[in-house]
Amino acid sequence: xxxxxxxxxxxxxxxxxxxxxxxxxxxxxxxxxxxxxxxxxxxxxxxxxxxxxxxxxxxxxxxxxxxxxxxxxxxxxxxxxxxxxxxxxxxxxxxxxxxxxxxxxxxxxxxxxxxxxxxxxxxxxxxxxxxxxxxxxxxxxxxxxxxxxxxxxxxxxxxxxxxxxxxxxxxxxxxxxxxxxxxxxxxxxxxxxxxxxxxxxxxxxxxxxxxxxxxxxxxxxxxxx
Amino acid sequence: xxxxxxxxxxxxxxxxxxxxxxxxxxxxxxxxxxxxxxxxxxxxxxxxxxxxxxxxxxxxxxxxxxxxxxxxxxxxxxxxxxxxxxxxxxxxxxxxxxxxxxxxxxxxxxxxxxxxxxxxxxxxxxxxxxxxxxxxxxxxxxxxxxxxxxxxxxxxxxxxxxxxxxxxxxxxxxxxxxxxxxxxxxxxxxxxxxxxxxxxxxxxxxxxxxxxxxxxxxxxxxxxx
Lengths: 225, 225
Description:
The structure is a homodimer. Chain A has eleven helices and eleven strands. Chain A is α/β, with parallel strands linked by helices. Chain A is globular and about 45 Å long. The termini of chain A are far apart. β11 of chain A pairs antiparallel with β11 (220-224) of chain B, so a sheet runs across the interface.
């Protein structure tokens, strides 16, 4: 499948690398490809520059948000929460129409320090905001409840854990579920329509506290039943 | 141990029955014991009247919130969220001073229908509100992330699941952890101070959506790591 991954951070890199390794034709979307490829400093989260990663993943193309989305059958939103709507606006509604948006972003607000608060919560979600802003796209919220490494290789935990999907379009959820299973997810739980993204986005506060208590991001939720 | 359980709903009954069965001296606290014992109609949640349950648990005493708290070494807050602070006020700060409050309540607001929203969230929690209102009590938030039956018998799921504790007082958390272990909890995760209750209270939205998607309340979170 031709897939655009919007976002050059750790989540975007993890998704792009894994999808490419599975044989998909992957283009990373970014605001300014020249700036992305020539930056030599770590980003604001301390990640090594994208160009380092790109040297080991020459098969992953880099393009603007709009170019990446235009050529894609499926679009992965791997931006940070505050960057999601602006990046998708640059991708353009025209290039998103009819396509699945696999949305991983979380509405985290770091402006008041750590732990971050949520800039959307409880009576709305970022997933719903994206669906409302791009009504012809088919948004599926998923993977936002775990660390980037586990998103694309959940088996590395050594025990089964769960991943959630939320979305209004059953066929889009089926497409996303097949991708998740190709990553190794064996317990995909369909929570219902896109409003159920409120629940998974509100998991982030306890996820962050668990990371602090356990001293690692290498954990995940399993729904035991 | 002499234990007061504040609240006569399904959570209060589950805790009181289990604690009593484990040999503790349990008193249920309620606003008006006479009304509680003489009511013959189901309550607002459709639960059978308390008097039915009381006939099979004659060893569990019934008293006012204040009387129950006065005689207790440990107080379980098993009220609903909106009833928590009023019930504890009736228990009185004097009778709560120095004692462990095992707080199970969730700040659910059903006034706009189902699913409920949260009347405290993200930058505060009901657990913190209780700790601030009763600074001499030692509040430990726990058990609020699962169904009442699983609170007191997690082994019934057939696979290990997790329970969280949040609180400022290490000795209080140790006391509560020992009680949780006596119920059969084998994975008790200390998240940190009482502000970490924000995380577990914000689990309720996804819990409610999971109940809808799975068609049962018989599930629990396990933190796989």
